[in-house]
Amino acid sequence: MRRKLLAATLSLAVVLTMFTGCNVQMEDESAGGSATASSESKTEMVGTGDKEIDVLIYAQEHEKVVYQDLIAKFTEEHSGEISKVNFEVTTQEEYGAKMTAAMIADDLPDIFYVGPEAVRSYVDNGYVLALDNYVGEEVDNLWPAIKSAYMYDGSQIGAGSLYCLPKDLSCFAFAYNKDIFDESGLAYPDPQDPYTFDEFLDVCKQLTKDTDGDGEVDQWGVANADAFGMTPYLYGNGGHFLNEDYTKVVVNENEAFKEAFKYYCDLTAVEGVTPSVEQDTALGGYQRWLDGQVAFYACGTWDVAAFMDKNTFPYEWDLCGWPVGPSGDGKSTAWLGTVGFAVSSKTEHPELCAQLIASLSTDLEGQKALCGETTGKSLQLPNVMDYAKTTFKEKVADGTIPYANNVDVIFGYIEGSDTYNGIFTETTYTYNAEWWDIFLEGIPNVKTGKISAEDYLAEVQPKMQEALDNAIELQNSATK
Fold first, then answer.
1. In terms of DSSP bridges, do strands 111-114 and 51-58 run parallel, antiparallel, or are they unpaired?
2. What confidence tier does 9 reach under pLDDT thresholds 50, 70, 90?
3. Which residue among 38, 89, 211, 409 has the highest number of C-beta atoms inside a 10 angstrom radius?
């Protein structure tokens, strides 16, 4: 669940540096020529022991810096055991290709990311280590949703052994640009009373403008990315992709889904309150948000640090809920997301690797760094539940942790409330996400008016069902 990162021209440069405050030597081999400007990098952290660990993750630049510091700290603390930690950071786009190549070569890193949707296949294929013998009571203080997402008993998610420690539990709240609202003379969204679909459309129409008078719209009410900015409209109207046991695609049978999908596509195709498909291809919604061209955009918990940085986003902003559809239960509903740290089943150092991922997932000091208390850059909500609900919220309120004022919106999605609801997408519970990828492929054609929403759903459902059936067959074969 991350934004697309800008690809860098690959040129290798080696920079020898020292981690501030530690005696761990690091060699940073980065794409783009420097450690601070790269989207891909390899960093070696050297100790005096005899155990080498390979770590592969994807991250944005501001995330990479914090994780690099935490791993360097761990290396120093275990320098008598560790000879070297090879810390490789890539883009989300490249991560899958790198992991596939590693699987084919039977040469997986010792530590890597696995999302909930991939837990079953990774376990069934013997790639990941069960962590039950390497973790203690600290995992009981994780948010229940993220702990259960990485448990698997051979037939279903949510029970059995624990196979990952969560990097985070995130959600996509809705961010809005307060400066744009101020310039338009509109009241800010009420975080306790999310817009209805009709109210949201009306506000977006008022915020979609030609601000420089050249005859072309250059400010839009909202920018929506299909992969993560569409589902809140669907779920907030009571729509679902699959039936209750995740065996049947229902996009053309679920009336609430059909209603919300048409509304979502019409924001672009009919109402023009989002950048067109062509405009979005030329410059994505995320960059348009950073440039102050759109009033509403999705905000993942990992985006907060970037949005709070005036050099990155020089506008006032806050959080609100996604709009609520007429056929839903009245709650604004967002997609919960997570990715987990897994340990290779073939690692030579399972206990040390488990300790390393614990330092990034369940260790309180690590969580203080990642949530911003000790670093000033909030990359996530704390995984440690009692700390998140108490000290973290207090530190946000007193300004110690830089965060949007309406942080309770995110807590509402994660904890659930009378106003907010957070759910994992159905891809979490199916053996792979090919059926979902098929659905995404044709959405631009609906947004450009090449095909109606109704016709598209009728056309795509059997294709999605075929992919889902194949996934079920793969799952059954793997678990026999």
1. parallel
2. very low
3. 409
